[in-house]
Amino acid sequence: METVVNTVDVSLEAWREEQKAWNDRSDFFVELHERDDRKAQVVYFLNYLEKKGLLPKEGAATLDIGCGVGDYALGLAKKGYEAHGIDLSDGMIKGGQELAKREGTALKLFVGPWSEETRQSLEWNRKFDLTYSFFCPVMFDKANVAAMSQTSKDKCLLVVFADRHDTIVEALTQHFYGTQDTFDWQSQVDGCISVARQVGKDVNVDYITTPEEEAFDMEAAIEYFMLRLYSEEWGTKEAMKAAMKDALQPYVKEDGKVHNVTEDKVAWISWTVK
Fold first, then answer.
1. Most buried residue, 114, 148, 231, 250, by most Cβ within 10 Å?
2. Closest C-alpha among 108, 192, 109 to residue 158
3. 253 domain-assigned
4. Helices (H), the chain
5. What digits encode the pLDDT tens for the residues 174-223?
């Protein structure tokens, strides 16, 4: 079995900055794939599909939009599905290709933006039995949500944040940038649900809230929060790394690790294509 990687024949000039940002994070997501909590998320996804009647018959074609390194696509491929994934980041896709080889399975992967130009180029009209997406930033765009139904001939699943609280990210955002995140997650989710009801039927929405405390070694904490927070407008990466070590000290506990408390509210929105 061999994973096939295709680069979509569309211009990427407008996407270069965003592509580079995700490429810079791809090694982290390859490492994340091996963690127990990530593996548990994939198991939950597969169980959720089965419980909600979203799992197609074995051998059917599936599409993961913004697939990253292919965690969820790999889970489906191992169950005998023809798993496709598309991501803007060629670094993420390369990571997915490496993971598929390591795990003895195969994916069909595409490098490109989730855009109308891409969809027309690939002729993905009613091609997949299940189209889904996890935490993909462009999926708060209503046209991109509607396009999920154009690619699917049966089921769709969109998983997005409905609210986020992160103790250290919130504190460091204030520390480095003097601001707080005021993004209205729920209004964006409501927009996605509205589109799902327009293009689909049997719309179902489940909200899952997950509190978590995670402990990092200092170097791992610096790398992780750099990925979350660094912007060139602040200055150099080296300068922020040096400043971040001091900023993280209040969160070091007796075990010598940096402890972060988070709580994410996640919306699972599914529908059947009309």
1. 148
2. 192
3. no
4. 16-23, 26-32, 36-51, 71-77, 90-102, 116-122, 142-151, 167-177, 185-199, 218-229, 237-248
5. 999 999 888 999 999 999 999 999 999 999 999 999 999 999 999 999 99
Longest alpha-carbon distance in the chain: 56
| Alpha carbons within 13 A on the beta-carbon side of 114 | 27
Three-class SS state of 46: helix
Percent of the chain with pLDDT over 90: 90
For residue 176, being part of any structural domain is answered with no
Overall number of domains in the chain: 1
Q: Is residue 174 part of a domain?
A: no
Amino acid at 213: E
Q: Write out the residue range of the structural domain in which residue 151 sits.
A: 4-166+183-213+262-273
Confirm if 3 and 96 have CB atoms less than 8 A apart.
yes
Q: Write the single-letter amino acid at 77.
A: A
Angstrom distance (rounded) from CA 55 to CA 182: 36
What one-character DSSP code corresponds to residue 273? E
For residues 204 and 271, what is the distance between their CA atoms, to the nearest angstrom?
6
We report the CATH number of the domain holding residue 132 as 3.40.50.150
Q: Which residues pair with 207 in a beta bridge?
A: 267
Instruction: List Cβ neighbours of 50 (8 Å cut-off, separation of 6 or more).
Output: none
Please provide the DSSP assignment of 136-188 as one string: -GGGGSHHHHHHHHHHEEEEEEEEEEEEEEEHHHHHHHHHHHS------HHHH
Residue-level length of the chain:
274
Q: Angle between the 218-229 and 237-248 helix axes, to the nearest 10 degrees?
A: 120
Q: Dihedrals φ, ψ of 48, to 5°? A: -65, -45
Q: Is residue 195 part of a domain?
A: yes
